Amino acid sequence: MQINENQPFVPVILGGDIGAYSLAREFHEQYDVHSVLVPSVLTGITEHSQILLPRPFEQQDDAAAFAAFVANLGREFGGSNGTKRPLLLLGAADQHIRFIATHADELSEWFTIPYVGNAELDRATEKDAFYQLCRELGVSYPATVVHDCANGSVDGAKIEAELAAEGVPFPAIVKPSDGVAWGQLKFAGKKKVHTVASLAELTELISKATLAGYAGTLIVQDLIPGGDSGMHLATFFSDREGKVRFVSCGRVIVEEHAPGALGNSAAIVAQPNDVAVVEGIRMLEELGWTGFSMFDMKLDPRDGTYKFFELNPRLGRNHFYVTAAGHNVTRFYVEEYLRGGLTGGDELQVATNRHLYNILPLRLLRRYVPRDMKAGVDELISTKQYSHPLYYKKETNPRRWFYILVSTLNHFRKFKRHHPAS
């Protein structure tokens, strides 16, 4: 397919995962427009689609080459005959948001960019800076020690003393402050997030990461007890003046546990969360944030508080839970950035509809629904209030539906291999 020259605007979406496809679907549902997707490689998610035009670019870690490629997309789709067609430049992953912020000056000739700059990204998304913000505002977060890998040394005794002082026991969670740099590392056993059972395991992990070239900081955190269903998330939209205008919250039912996807939500129930709304607004307005953001948090059964983990500077991979519950996220991009601003004054809109977002076979999902959510999830399923972002009726290519069927059923194999017993 090609983008019709009469299409009023074109979303250009960097990435090719389920979150990137969700955005393309949402633009198509809301505005009947086709998007350009820029994955590193073509996969079943981006192939054989009737709502998007894939333009793969493999060397996305070559910033100069990638910027030149994206600028050429701007020239191609930005209109002809002396008139520019509006183009929205969007990213599906953290590295895309960082890339867009870094190259905003040159790319803004062609694109409208609905993201903050590098300084705001540093303060909000570098995890040690985020926890400093939590401390300043009195927002709960897990007990944390920050280890700097820049000097290359690993002093076990010093690390042990720091963990004891901050009250971080073993087993502990270890994750990078700089997720983009971590994603580029290669070493045996690397995961998105690690759980270490002892000081020896922790120091070994630090040594491996340092030898692989990681020079950022590692976050060593208290492992909050409880399963996947203790996880919660909240998606916010702030206007260009930094005023929070919309929020939608959800409770995770089950996450993926394969090493490369650890922590990605597989099923979410959209539902209100008053604590997330209040605390999220406090942090975002302190930051002067604009555009979309998403918080991850976990309910700590030991004291009944929500512990905030991080701020994502974009829509999450599984943000379709927001749209499926009745609030198409693309409306906020278009109204705020292309059509003069959101209507409705400064009023805050809080989503209240319950809806089930799910990418698993229902039989597999039911194995992992916690007891306190079982009745509610069964009701959502029986009343057809559930959605899969790839199940879009406007897609009619049988090869695409075959891929979706196979990938959905493949979760049985992945969960058998990687997921804890239900």
From TrEMBL:
This protein's record includes keyword ATP-binding: yes
Gene3D superfamilies per record: ATP-grasp fold, B domain (3.30.470.20)
Domain ATP-grasp per the UniProt entry, residue ranges: 131-338
Keywords: ATP-binding, Nucleotide-binding
InterPro entries referenced in this protein's UniProt entry, alphabetically: ATP-grasp (IPR011761)
Domain of life: Bacteria
Name used for this protein in its record: Carbamoyl-phosphate synthase
Species of origin: Paeniglutamicibacter terrestris
